[in-house]
Give the backbone structure.
Amino acid sequence: MNNKTEGIINSLAAPLVLFTAMLDPRVSVGIAVVFLAGLAIYKFRSRGAL
């Protein structure tokens, strides 16, 4: 994954987490954890670590 793609993914995830925080902070934490775990798995698989 190049820096541009990673920046786009992070830019899309940030407002989603911020707007869900206005509804329910627990939902926001859950979404943030899912996005971070998904991004970590994707990066590890693309590097051949997993």
Remarks:
- Residues 3-47 form one domain.
